[in-house]
Amino acid sequence: MPRNVFYAQSGGVTAVINASAAGVIETARANRARIGRVYAGHDGILGALAEDLIDTSGERASAIVGLTHTPGGAFGSARYKLKGLAEHRAHYERLIDVFRAHDIGYFLYNGGNDSADTCLKVAQLARELGYPLTCVHIPKTIDNDLAGTDCCPGFGSVAKYVATSMREAAFDVASMARTSTSVFVLEVMGRHAGWITAAVGLAEDEEHPIPLLLLLPEVRFDEPRFLAAVARLVKMHGYCCIGVSEGLRGADGGFLSESGLHDSFGHAQLGGAGELIAKLTRDRLGLKYHCALADYLQRSARHIASRTDLEQAYAVGRAGVLAALAGQNAVMVSIVRTADQPYRWTLSHTPLARVAGRERMVPRSFIRRDGFGITARARTYLQPLIEGEAPPPFRRGLPRFTRLANRRVPRKLAAYSL
C-alpha cells in the first residue's frame, strides 16, 4: 500500500530551497502507486512535533511549479535543534508517534548540518522501535559547508549575489573615491567556513580589476598586515574594497564580533565584523568608509539566482524521493562534480554518518598565499556554481512569487509541549 511522505525545511532558508520542495512534490505525484500524500511540516520539524502538518495534495500543479521561482520557505522553517537520543528521546519518540498516526513511511529533511544529524537519529530510533521509516537528507545551506557533497544547493545563488554586489559597489566607490569614500566593506554570512567570502573574490577578474581584500574565518586576522594592505591599495588605486566574513577570527581564535548571545542551535550570535573592520581603517588610517551588511538579502535574492543552483536544488529534491523509494535509508543526496570545463555533475548518496557533525572548510589551496584573496583553483571550483540566469516572472516591475494554501491535516494525537 502507498505510504505518505513527511517533508520539512530546516534552518535558514535560501533563494532556491522551494525548488527542492517542488522536486519532492512533483516526483511524489509521479509515483502515486507507491506514495500517498506529501505532508509538509509547518515551521519545519516543529510541525512534526506539534502534529501541525500541511497537506500538499490539494495544491494546483501550477502552484508547485511556482515554488521554483519563490524565495523563503513555502511551509515555514525553524531553528530548532534536537539534541542526542538520550537527552531528547521523548521528542524523537513523539516524531515516530506522529509518523505512525499519519502512516508516514518516508522522512525527507531539507537542511544543513544540524538537520543531517537529526535525520540520522530519527532513522536510528525508528530502526530501534521497529517502525518502518526511510529517512533521506536533502542538502541545503548557503554556507556550503556540508561534508559528502561537492556543493550545497543555496550556495551558488548567494555566491552570485555577493560577487555581483561587490562588483557593482566597486564601480560606485571608484567614481567617488577622490572626494568621498575610499574604503567599502561588505560583510557576508559564514560562521566557521568562508565559502561566501571566497565567492566575493569572483567580483574581480582580468576584465574587471578591483583592489579587493578578503577576510576569511580560515585565516586568523592580523591587524598590522591588514592595515598595510589597505594602505597600499588605496595609495595605488585611490580606494579599496573588502569582503568580510561574519565569522572572522582574531589571533586567539575567537570571533571578532561575538556578542555573547547564542541562537537556538547553541551557536554564538555574530554580527558587526564588517563595521569593526571599517572603523579600524578609519581610526588607524584616517580613511572614509561605507559598510554594507548583506544579511538576509544575500539568501533571499531570487531575482539573481544561479541557474546551476536552481537546477541542483530541484534535482536533489527529486532524487530524495527516488532514494527513499529505492530503500536508501539514513543517506544524504550528494552532488558529484565530474568535470570542471565544461562543468558537469551528477547525483549520488552519502551515508549520514559521514555527514552529521562535520564541517567542510575552504581548503588552503583555495586561499591566496597572503591570505587576502582566492587562487585560480578556487575560481575553477566557484565559477560554474554561479553561472546561468533564471529570473522569476515579473509584473508591474516587481517579481511575482507563489503562496500556497497550506491546508492543515486534522490532528489525531493529544497536544504535545516542547
Descriptive notes:
By secondary structure, this protein is α/β, with parallel strands linked by helices. The chain folds into 2 domains: 3-141 and 303-358 and 390-408, Rossmann fold, CATH 3.40.50; 155-301, Rossmann fold. 34% of the residues lie in helices and 18% in strands. The protein contains 12 helices and 14 strands. It has helices at 17-29, 45-49, 61-66, 89-101, 113-129, 155-176, 195-200, 223-237, 273-285, 295-300, 307-325, 376-382; strands spanning 3-9, 35-41, 53-55, 104-111, 134-139, 183-188, 212-215, 240-245, 289-293, 331-339, 344-351, 394-395, 398-399, 407-408. Strands 11-10-5-4-1-2-3-14 form an 8-stranded mixed beta sheet, sandwiched between helices. Strands 7-8-6-9 form a 4-stranded parallel beta sheet, with helices on both faces. A hairpin with a 2-residue loop joins strand 12 and strand 13 (398-399). Helix 1 (17-29) crosses helix 11 (307-325). It is elongated and about 70 Å long. The two termini are 33 Å apart. The model is unreliable at 259-265 (pLDDT under 50).
